[in-house]
Amino acid sequence: MTTVNNNHYDVIVIGGGITGAGTARDCAMRGLKVLLVERHDFSTGATGRNHGLMHSGARYAVTDHESAKECIQENMILRKIARHCVEETDGLFITLPEDDLNFQATFVQKCTEAGISAEIIDPKQAIIMEPSVNPELIGAVKVPDASIDPFRLTMANVLDAQLHGAEVLVYHEVVDVIIEQDRMVGVKLRNNHNGEELDVYATVTVNAAGIWGALIAQMAGVKINMFPAKGSLLIFGHRVNNMVINRCRKPANADILVPDDAVCVIGTTSVRIPIEECDDMRVTPEEVEELLAEGMKLAPSLGSTRILRGYAGVRPLVASDDDPSGRSISRGIVTLDHEKRDGLAGFITITGGKMMTYRLMAEEVTDLVCQKLNISKNCDTATTPLPGSEPKEETKRFSFSQKAAEGRHGTLDKEIESGDAASDALVCECEGVSVGEVRYAVTKLHVHNLINLRRRTRVGMGTCQGELCACRAAGVMCSDDKSAQKAINDLNGFVNERWKGMQPVAWGDNLAEAQLTATIYQGLLGVDKLANERRIEYYEI
Amino acid sequence: MRFDVIIIGGGLSGLTAGIALAEAGKDVALVSAGQSTLHFGSGSLDLLGCDDKGNDIYKPIDAIATLGEKHPYNKLEDVSGLAGVAKQLLERAGIATTGDANVNHWRITPIGGLMPTWLSMEGMAIVQDPDQMPWKRVALVNIANYLDFPTKFLAAGLRERGVQVDVKAVTVPQLAQLRKSPTEMRSTNIAKVIESNDIINDIADKINSITGEGYDMVLLPAVLGVASSENSKKLLSLIKMPASYVATLPPSVTGVRLQTQLRKRFNSLGGSFFPGDQVIEGVFENNVLKGVKTAKLDGTTLEADNFILATGSFMSRGLKADYDHIYEPALGVDVDDMGLDRKTWAKIDVNEAQPYMEMGVKTDEKLRCLRNGTAINNLYAVGSILSGHNSIKLLDAAGVDMLTALQVANNIIK
Amino acid sequence: MATETQTQNVSVNNFEQCLKCSICTVYCPVSAVTPEYPGPKQAGPDAERYRMKNKAFFDDALKMCLNCKRCEVACPNDVHIGDIIQAARIKYNTHRPKLRDMMLANTDFVGTMASPFAAIANPILKLKPMKAVLHGVMAIDKHRTFPDYSSRKFESWFKKNAAALQDKFNKHVSYFHGCYVNYNYPQLGVDFVNVMNAVGYGVHLLEKEKCCGVALIANGMPKQAKRQGEVNMTSMRKAIAQGHQVLTTSSTCTFTMRDEYDHLLGIDNHDVRDSISLATRFLYQLIEKGEIKLAFREDFKKRVAYHSACHMERMGWVPYSTRLLRMIPGIDFVMLESQCCGISGTYGFKKENYERSQAIGKGLFDQIKEVNPDCVATDCETCKWQIEMSTGTPVMNPISIIAEALDVEKTRELNKQ
User: Fold this and answer.
1) What is d(CA B269, CA C367) in angstroms, rounded to the nearest whole number?
2) Residue C100: its pLDDT value, please?
3) Which tens digits make up the pLDDT trace of B339-354?
4) Domain B2-99+257-413 sits in which CATH superfamily?
5) Ordered DSSP codes for A258-301
6) How does pLDDT run across A135-151, given as a tens digit for each residue?
7) What total number of domains does chain C contain?
8) Residue A1 confidence (pLDDT)
């Protein structure tokens, strides 16, 4: 773990989601001394709980021109700078018999106005391009949607921030802010692993904590009107589709199906929830029903495909400042300069927006930070590839795990030991994760437990959700007797975390799988009896 | 095709019933849809390991009185007697075990826990009293780079109990060759390589040379003896110090051996084993099952005087859960779903007792299946498909499998 | 929605049903002897998820799969693991088959060429220099003995000696003899005709018969296999229209035409499938229904050990052959432990597979030596080659054993209407 050498920084960034990671990267690249703090693991909030869709912007073209433009610009940038996080799948916007085909013309026109290439495709041709699509479609438009892996994207931003000198503290939670007169000068952190507290200081503090940013602001006596919207999604066992499939109509529930790596994801529902509930969200049976019913309209074979799990995220929607009632919600980027807005210097909140526009958000807020610090340095994040996304070297990858690892880490896969039997042994058979990759993640990617490891490598994200691999990975990660008990607790926690996503969809083969997993972990190994701690945190669900 | 008895399901319960009936001179056919849960076994068989609060049980026969009224053991005439019969049946199939239904002993789990059990296959490391470990100094010897034997956890677990443990690893060229496969460095493949290359002596020499002297126990992963215990015994006999095996992650070599030996025994008694087929329909007539149809033997009805349903629970497809209900897919007999639906049959904490685990088919006091509320005169259910107990929490799976099978065999023979 | 949705999670070749329990890996005869093979679970359902994402995940090592389907028999959740692997080979393999593979795969073409010259071909194929050429140039293993080519094809025998007699029967079947009976071992065909005639059935050949294509599939020529399969289906439809069942004496041909045509080659055989049967199954079912009776010679005595050929086991039809054999009073029947013999059609003929092939079969050979039967019975012709070569014990098709044990006169009497 990075240690805090000198506790005064130019900027402290709060929040290890994509916005925080991107902001840390931008600040570091402009030469600032940066500390990034995250109370749990990276991408545990909204960043890790969405579709993994790299919007072309088409979804917003009709309703929100500005967002659509931002999306397509960032979309084109991410293809270049985050190659290894992006899969260029393209997307379809389909019209079904129950939809109004007239909407298509408006849609294409608005896309074109926003700079999004939108090509009308003959429905028969669309079926050839994407055989899983509902064959009853009456219209289709092809747009440059793609899929993007938010875990990889966040990690790559963090790695680049570190390469540019940023320090990073995970499992460090902001428990208070330090204010001197009318200026925020730092924050009080608690190490969530051992409870120790420490103060860190900075000229500027950037609040990039997503929905939880409202609570940070509250500590500083500042009010931000957040409106948390819960969105539930389902993961299917394999890729049913190879192109993103959307409905060509006004955005509604469960109308996007995204192929992500070896799975596909349908979502989302949308329901307002109180901010206290953001810490413990579960997918309800009604949501499962709705997602499945609507999903089958996009791709009927979802009805006969195994659902691996359900999960829910929360969108950090912000009420416009000029409308305290909260009725007017902005989906765009919201940068709050609290010095101007609330008379509290040294404190900026960046929120709203979407994963797609994280880089732009980071650029905007970094511009403001630089202005406060009187630094004039241009932003280079749009043109500099992220670590792992540098131009591909022509190495031939042979084994399943080597190919899978290249997909996950891009050119950084060269840091993974391979070629000898000990490193090549497979830990996770579904996702092709080798011992070498686990070791790489543990040493280089801020991995403290199995759930962190899963976010970095996909261990346990396959069909069986960790039936054998979790135990193998725990064995590889465990170094001595002292850590053995921790590793067994971790293993028990991991099995429970996997189950929490499976439980809402526990029927069919999933229930059989659950029984088999319980037979192995509880019946054969006795993990539940050996674990002396059962605490599962919401962010691990 | 006509038989005296047709058994549906080729796992521990089906084979136990099949052997008991064939030994009594019955013409038995056994239809098995794929291999069984023995492949996830521990090398030990449990009768009753824990009470419903999760506490270890020391005297299982005595503890049976405390079980809930739905537990299948309540339908057995003489649990203790049947337990003895089960042990002898295994013995005749070439499976020697230690253990006694009156007093549990403890097995060592692959991550270093101790779990109460009834019978352990010969060669498995066991502990008679969990509060008093029988060894002071243990050498824990793994096959180099074999990931399914987590030695760090095992060592830590033993040390926690006051045992001094040294962890070692051995390899020989033939195993190093197997290591080249990133996916297939598995217990059963290790066993096949060792056994087919006849390198048990080499491995014993390696183990002897790296352990040296001074251990009162050498613990090894149970990766020997797929087809019989001959080779696993041989290795132990060649090691200079007392040595025994600890279970690995699946597939379980001891479980495969148990399965193989039982099936061979069944075959040698003249039983007909139909592997890879599946009963898809029953022909019922006035509360009597006349015959069953299978997926593969299309056009043929398998007929018998008596039938035994031994198809296991969800993971063996003996029970199925669809979007909104639980059913028994082979014959459509009545299932006790405890009145629960999809929202309630699984609880949020994985370690809680899961209601779905207790679901199974309904039976009368003679273990006969019910169909539309009425008992079928000649159709019995045995093993994990029975409702009324949570085998993961109570640690009673093998006991329920074997003892209900023996009880039903008795009911049929009578 | 609830009831019609998610009631069965079945996708193409149902790889989704895989619970990752690893049981299949225990029963794979290949992964046990060669670490280069990733094993059925990895090669099948695991990697298929990734191949669906990117075909670069296809691994050439999949060609080591024997297509024995023992993984499928072992699978507790009915995943078509072998089909997934073979389908992946068909879909993603980019290598073109070698000359050797084309020669081995085109069993009927080679047979047609060799048969007229059997007197020359057989000794030549056995000569050391020829074997060296085959081994070196063609990569056909020198240890292998090519099955003899018969000097007269079964079809020629049938036309000359049997065809004219068949119409006098009241009941009729069609016979798919397969390449082996036609070119290598016409006696099995003769035995079949004799048995069927004895129980009152006339035997007819199909209008046009092509090799079932199993070797073409295995050697990476699915298109040709599909063309041949279509020809067979057309001929069979005509036979079925006349009320004939189509019988074979080969478990592999039967399995290929009933299951692999649909699963791997995309041939629509749904209207034909149920009418294709194995001779032993056909006879057993008729006996069970009381429609025919068999009478056996009293002097017939034989110790017979039955070997469950892989595809026979996959079809689940072993009981038909074994229960039929057990009807012979003079038989001392032993059931061998079911395991692969290692030949897998043309697989074991290839130089690169020879050692693996023998290692796979070793357990079976040891068992046979221990049982020491007069003959081994099996429903598969390539198992016959392998077992005879490796153990020296003669191997017979159950139909040939029936033919040998049958009291033909008495049987004819019993089956006269």
Assistant:
1) 18
2) 75
3) 999 889 999 999 999 9
4) FAD/NAD(P)-binding domain (3.50.50.60)
5) EEETTEEEEE---EE--GGGGGS----HHHHHHHHHHHHHH-GG
6) 999 999 999 999 999 99
7) 2
8) 39
Instruction: Please give the pLDDT value at position A5.
Output: 54
CA distance C95 to A261: 27
**Residue A250: both structure tokens together:** 């006004």
Tokens 């897919």 -> residue: B329
pLDDT digit string (tens) for B27-48?
999 999 999 999 999 999 999 9
Q: How far, in Å, CA of A366 to CA of A157, rounded?
A: 14
Q: Which residues on chain B are in Cβ contact (under 8 Å) with C337? A: 264, 267
* Cβ(A425)–Cβ(B145) below 8 Å: yes
Reported residue count of chain C is 417
Residue C277: inside a domain, yes or no? no
Nearest-neighbour CA in chain B from C33: distance (Å): 7
Between B153 and C218, the more confident residue is B153
The residue from C51, C75, C92 where one domain ends is: C92
Angle at A141 between CA A139 and CA A142, to 5 degrees: 145
Q: What are the extents of the domains in chain B?
A: 2-99+257-413, 125-246
| CA nearest neighbour of B195 among B172, B219, B170 | B172
- Structural domains for chain A: 8-46+151-225+326-372 (3.50.50.60), 85-147+227-316 (3.30.9.10), 400-540 (no CATH)
The residue count of chain A comes to: 541
CATH label, B125-246, candidates 1.20.1250.20, 3.30.70.100, 3.40.50.720, 3.40.50.1860: 3.40.50.1860
CA distance B325 to A307: 17
**Per the domain annotation, does C166 fall within a domain?**
no
Domain that holds residue C340: 302-408
Answer whether residue A394 shows pLDDT above 80.
no
Min Cα–Cα distance to chain B from A526, Å: 7
Rounded CA-CA distance C347/C101 in Å is: 9
Q: Are A344 and A2 in contact (CB under 8 A)?
A: no
State how far the Cα of C358 lies from the Cα of C336, in Å rounded to an integer: 18
Pairwise CB contact (< 8 Å): A475 & B153 = yes
| Regions of chain B where pLDDT drops below 50 | none
Nearest CB partner across the interface for B180, out of C32, C35, C318: C35
CATH classification at residue C65: 1.10.1060.10
Using an 8 Å CB-CB cutoff, list chain A residues near B147: 425, 427, 435, 472, 475-476
Closest among B368, B370, B343, B141 to B243, alpha carbons compared:
B141
* β-pairing verdict for A146-148 and B119-121: unpaired
**Residue C186 forms part of a structural domain:** no
**Domain B2-99+257-413 and domain B125-246 have a common topology:** no
* CA distance readout (Å), A129 to A56, A90, A117, A140, C53: 18, 10, 17, 11, 15
How far C348 CA sits from the closest chain B CA (Å)? Answer: 19
**Cβ–Cβ of B276/C72 closer than 8 Å?**
yes
Structure tokens given for C221:
């020529």
Gap from B66 CA to chain A (nearest CA, Å): 21
Per-residue pLDDT at C199 exceeds 60: yes
Closest CA to C49 of A259, A399, A239: A239
Q: Domain holding C400: CATH number?
A: 3.40.50
CA distance B378 to C149: 55
CB contact under 8 A, A468 and C41: no
Residue C56 lies in a domain: yes
Tell me the pTM. 0.95
Q: What is the mean pLDDT of residues A470-495?
A: 89
Which residues of C are less than 8 Å from B35 in CB distance? 23, 26-27, 74-76
Residue A541: is its pLDDT beyond 50?
Answer: no
